[in-house]
């Protein structure tokens, strides 16, 4: 069978971002909850403006944006994906994909999410959404650590990184062909939904389009999901979502980049 390979489209405009920032963590099932009323462009603008005058991060909670303080005791789940948001010079916002907090101030994502030349002259926000609050950072993309062969990159958070904790750096595992896996993708209503599947053996068509450090799963993500972390059933991080293989019948398989052997460029 012949499969076509495509990267998950990272270019989503502001209305997509508005949905993303109302994310709840759900299993793959319908959600009837309406979007919260604060999903407005002026909220993102205010976060951007406030981060110009503080090291950050800032917190949006209960209708207010305030600078993070240690006594807030806000913690982020280690499996929580973050959203990479770009504010271009003309004032437009765009979501360029997902990532995860690896540790030491670094967010791990797919390289193609952050490699566009104009990102280096834009304002980059990285948002960690929860059900109760959103933690928003500025990020430094001037000198990202990258691995072009694996399509991986580290992006540096600016400011206090206590809320994300130690990150996933001590929960890395090698890929096992018998692994059951799960990762989070974005539903049309903006919520995160949990996708569960297994490691698959790629056919010859897939192998011709894969890097040597990539693996295939029985489930794929949606547009804008590049950079999402994938976990085995022991809750260990084994890869980052980079692309999708699509059969002419419509069948889709996710393709992930392994991360177990890239610690030399942390």
TrEMBL record:
<feature type="signal peptide">
    <location>
        <begin position="1"/>
        <end position="28"/>
    </location>
</feature>
<protein>
    <recommendedName>
        <fullName>Serine protease</fullName>
    </recommendedName>
</protein>
<dbReference type="Pfam" id="PF13365">
    <property type="entry name" value="Trypsin_2"/>
</dbReference>
<dbReference type="InterPro" id="IPR043504">
    <property type="entry name" value="Peptidase_S1_PA_chymotrypsin"/>
</dbReference>
<keyword id="KW-0732">Signal</keyword>
<dbReference type="InterPro" id="IPR009003">
    <property type="entry name" value="Peptidase_S1_PA"/>
</dbReference>
